[in-house]
């Protein structure tokens, strides 16, 4: 496969009036305080699927995409995305964090939403090329920040009704230097969580197990309402019984019992976090028991000595309290998960 070819900047210049990319020198004293936000970089990688095949890919030097007004992504939410990171290492190399896991998860999401499969080789090529072409924005070794990578697959072709399917799909990879999702609260401070009683994250047998864009749109109103009440995040229970723990707003739930058992929910409507899976392996390596099973909130929440939110963007975040109705469950310990 020929290497990706850079797009002509003039083609996209009309899309970027007044847009200026981030100056690396302006970040020199901010690497540990970047926050989680959009920072313009050199551009993104783009692949297009038409006539049953993917093209060779290209680099787009702009922060926008040309899209049909009747695209399946805009009208029907035919879109899945991923989140992973690249780190500058002590030896000077820049390394990706488990891209094959993210590739496999995107393939599952594509199948669920009837989109073409992104081959693992193309996924890794696109991610690697996006990082390489924006290499100056990878935070230096020794800082808490990293390069956050957002692969996106969506129906860019037009759709009117659910059949026939779109004739064009796009796979994009955008990157940006970023800190932790929860900022300072993601450190020793911790986050207060509110159990949602009148909202559901995902329906049984729905799209909750894949990283579909619409799953996150459903959390916008609940999480902003929770933050208006002073909480840092939301916690969802299963939609059928409102009994079993599912997920936090953008993270998996992990609880550590007093006997150091690592417990995390297992259900068909929960997104399988790559970070969670790696933490499970680390826990096993330390001799801990790992349990992936249904967690009855009322019966078990007090049994956890530690509770954490885990995910690529958030990493591992302490949950210092969980409120359900008029009951508040305090969690002060974080010794095991903080390691």
Automatic annotation (TrEMBL):
Name any cofactors this protein relies on: pyridoxal 5'-phosphate
Q: Which family does it belong to?
A: Belongs to the class-IV pyridoxal-phosphate-dependent aminotransferase family.
The species this protein belongs to is Pyrodinium bahamense
Q: What is this protein called?
A: Branched-chain-amino-acid transaminase
UniProt keyword list: Aminotransferase, Pyridoxal phosphate, Transferase
SUPFAM superfamilies in UniProt: D-aminoacid aminotransferase-like PLP-dependent enzymes
One of the entry's Gene Ontology molecular-function terms is:
branched-chain-amino-acid transaminase activity
One BP term from GO = branched-chain amino acid metabolic process
């Amino acid at each position: 496969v020929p290497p990706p070819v850079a797009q002509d900047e003039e083609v996209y210049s009309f899309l970027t009036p007044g847009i200026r990319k981030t100056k690396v020198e302006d970040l020199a004293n901010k690497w540990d305080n970047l926050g989680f936000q959009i920072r313009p970089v050199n551009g993104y990688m783009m692949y297009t699927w038409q006539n049953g095949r993917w093209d060779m890919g290209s680099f787009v030097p702009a922060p926008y995409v040309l899209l049909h007004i009747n695209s399946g992504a805009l009208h029907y939410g035919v879109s899945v995305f991923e989140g992973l990171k690249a780190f500058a290492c002590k030896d000077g190399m820049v390394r990706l964090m488990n891209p094959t896991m993210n590739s496999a998860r995107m393939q599952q999401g594509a199948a669920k939403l009837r989109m073409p499969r992104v081959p693992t080789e193309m996924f890794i090529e696109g991610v690697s090329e996006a990082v390489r072409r924006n290499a100056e924005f990878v935070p230096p070794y020794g800082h808490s920040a990293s390069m956050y990578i957002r692969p996106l697959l969506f129906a860019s072709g037009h759709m009117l009704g659910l059949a026939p399917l779109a004739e064009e799909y796009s796979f994009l990879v955008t990157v940006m230097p970023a800190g932790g999702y929860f900022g300072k609260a993601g450190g020793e401070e911790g986050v207060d969580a509110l159990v949602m009683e009148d909202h559901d994250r995902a329906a049984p047998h729905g799209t909750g197990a894949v990283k579909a864009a619409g799953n996150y749109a459903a959390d916008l109103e609940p999480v902003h309402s929770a933050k208006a009440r002073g909480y840092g995040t939301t916690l969802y229970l299963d939609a059928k019984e409102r009994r079993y723990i599912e997920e936090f707003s953008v993270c998996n739930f992990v609880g550590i019992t007093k006997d150091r058992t690592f417990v995390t929910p297992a259900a068909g409507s929960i997104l399988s976090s790559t970070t969670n899976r790696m933490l499970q392996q680390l826990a096993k390596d330390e001799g801990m028991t790992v349990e992936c099973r249904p967690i009855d909130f009322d019966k078990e929440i007090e049994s956890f000595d530690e509770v954490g939110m885990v995910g690529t963007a958030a990493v591992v975040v302490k949950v210092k309290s969980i409120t359900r109705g008029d009951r508040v469950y305090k969690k002060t310990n974080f010794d095991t998960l903080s390691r």
